[in-house]
Amino acid sequence: MNFHQFVRDGGGWETLKMESQFANPYLQVFKAQVRTPLRPDGCEWTVVHRKGATVIAPMTADGKFVLVHQERVPIHETIWEFPAGQIDESATNDEKIIHDTALRELREESGYELAPGAKLTPLGLYFPSSGFTDEHCHLFLARPVVLSKQGSSHDANEAITGCREFSADELRSMISNSEIRDANTLSTYARLCAMGIL
């Protein structure tokens, strides 16, 4: 059972068995039996399936980044991070829906939107924790952004306590001082640096 177009059998990989252990609207847990290139007899693994997501690095015309301050229940902290949100399950491989999800999450979480004539630049995707989950995040740069007349509209599961602009130097300092610790923001920042955007 493969959930995403880039997680497929072939090249020495074969899913022998997948047994559902737990499911809710946000994730599914499977006990998997998988044959791999180094384990031709197969191995057992616990695999968590999650929807794909978008992560957006919003940048203003003067080069500031917009971050949201969001409660994260698993770590019992409220942290600064780039806006992000899940893609509809049936559309995780549809480029237009991924793009539209990024724009929606940008506005809903931060209250910002693309300025007229601005663009949403894809930065590729990454796997936040490939040791146990197939979750993947599509990264974007939204530049330049402006405050939306509609403002933000957080969904029922979000607890966003604030939104603020930070200079590139402030963002770098927050990362080096471990004030920013979430994988989405760190990975997006690394991709921006690797692509020569920062």
Core attributes:
alpha+beta, 198 residues, three-stranded antiparallel sheet, 2 domains, Nucleoside Triphosphate Pyrophosphohydrolase, single chain
Characterise the protein shown here:
- The chain folds into two domains: 14-50, no CATH class; 53-194, Alpha-Beta Complex (Nucleoside Triphosphate Pyrophosphohydrolase).
- The chain is built from three helices and ten strands.
- It has helices at 95-110, 168-176, 183-194, and strands spanning 14-23, 27-36, 39-50, 53-58, 65-72, 77-81, 84-86, 112-126, 137-147, 160-166.
- The strands form three sheets. A four-stranded mixed beta sheet has the order 7-4-9-8, sandwiched between helices. A three-stranded antiparallel beta sheet has the order 1-2-3, with no helix packed on it. Strands 6-5-10 form a three-stranded antiparallel beta sheet.
- A hairpin with a 2-residue loop joins β2 and β3.
- The longest helix is centred in the middle third of the chain and has 16 residues, at 95-110.
- The chain is elongated, with a radius of gyration of 18 Å.
- The relative contact order is 0.18.
What Rg is obtained from the alpha carbons, in whole angstroms? 18 Å
CATH architecture of the largest domain: Alpha-Beta Complex
Helix content: 10-25%
Tell me what portion of residues adopts beta-strand conformation: 35-45%
Structural class: alpha+beta
Q: Which shape, going by the Cα principal axes? A: elongated
Query: What separation lies between the terminal Cα atoms?
Result: 39 Å
How many strands appear in the DSSP assignment?
10
Order of helices and strands: EEEEEEEHEEEHH
CATH class categorisation of the largest domain: Alpha Beta
Mean pLDDT: 91
Flag low-confidence runs: none
The CATH superfamily of the largest domain appears as Nucleoside Triphosphate Pyrophosphohydrolase
CATH topology of the largest domain: Nucleoside Triphosphate Pyrophosphohydrolase
Biggest sheet, open or closed, and with what strands and sense?
A: 4 strands, mixed
